[in-house]
Amino acid sequence: MKPGDAPEPMLAVQHLRVSYQGRPVLADVNFTLRRHQISAFAGAAGAGKTTILKALAGLLRPVAGKILFEGEAIEGLPAWEVVKRGIVYVPEGMRIFPQMTVVENLEVGAYLKREGIPARLDLVFSIFPELQEKVRLPAGVLSGGQQRMVTLARGLMAAPRLLLLDEPFMGLSPKLVKRFCDSFRDLRQTGITLLIAGQYVFRVLNVAEVAHLVEHGQITLSGSGPELLRDRHLKEILFPTGDRPPTGDKIG
C-alpha cells in the first residue's frame, strides 16, 4: 500500500441482491466496514436489515452481488464456513439452553473453535463479570438481562473477528441498554468489529461510528450515527406522525 492510500476494508458488499420465495428483498446494497469499527443499520421493521445480516452470515444466498471479507468472496460459502472465517451472527431473540449451566451454554458457542476457550472465557467474564459469579448455575434461573448477556457471550466464544448483532437491545431496560453499549465499545477495543441492526434507532445509532438507513431493501442514507440521528428524512421515515421514540431510546 502506498503512503496515503486508505487501508482495504474488512468487509465490502457490492451490488447485493437477495430474494425470498421469488420476491426481491434486497436490491443493489453497497457498503463497506473498516476493522475495529462499530457500524449500524437502522430502519423500520421489514426494511431488510435482518436479511443483510443473514446474507453476510451465509444463512441466505444472494441472487447477485459480492460479499468480500478480507478481500475474499464469501457469498457462496455455507454458514459454518463463514463462522470459521470469523463472522458470527447473533440473531434477534436468540435463546439460552435453560437446563444447561452458564458455562455449558458458553462452550456451545465454541463448537467450531475449540482452541483458546480459556482465553475467550476470560474475555467474556471481563465484560460480564456477573456471569462468572453464576457460571455453574442453570442458565434458566438467570434474569432476562443476564440471559441476553449469555447469548452475546456465546457469540464471543466463536472467536469472531466480525460480530453481527440483530436487535440486541430488544426488551432491555434503559440501564441495561447503556451497559450493552459500553460492552460494545469494550469489544471494539479488543479488536472485534461490530455491525448492529435495530429498529430502536436512538439506541443503535448512539453507539455507531458509521450508520446506514435501510428502506425497502436499499440503503438510502449513510453517515455517522450522530449525523443520522439529526437527519430529517430518517425522522420522517421512522416517526412519521411525530411520535416519541420507544421508551429508553435516548440520545446521550
Q: Which class best fits the helix and strand makeup?
A: alpha/beta
Strand content: 15-25%
The unreliable regions are 246-252
Q: How many beta-strand runs?
A: 10
Number of helices: 10
CATH superfamily of the largest domain: P-loop containing nucleotide triphosphate hydrolases
Instruction: Give the C-level CATH assignment of the largest domain.
Output: Alpha Beta
Helical content class: 25-40%
Distance between the termini: 38 Å
Order of helices and strands: EEEHEEHEHHHHEHEHEEHH
How large is the radius of gyration?
A: 18 Å
Question: Would you mind describing this structure in some detail?
Answer:
With 252 residues, the protein is an alpha/beta fold. The protein folds into 2 domains: 8-86 and 161-240, Rossmann fold; 95-159, no CATH class. Helices cover 34% and strands 24% of the residues. The chain contains 10 helices and 10 strands. The chain has helices at residues 49-56, 79-85, 102-108, 117-127, 129-133, 144-156, 174-189, 201-206, 225-229, 232-238; strands at 11-20, 23-33, 38-42, 64-69, 72-73, 87-90, 162-166, 193-198, 210-215, 218-223. The strands form 2 sheets. A 6-stranded mixed beta sheet has the order 6-7-8-3-9-10, with helices on both faces. A 4-stranded antiparallel beta sheet has the order 2-1-4-5, with helices on one face. A hairpin with a 2-residue loop joins strand 9 (210-215) and strand 10 (218-223). Helix 3 (102-108) runs parallel beside helix 6.
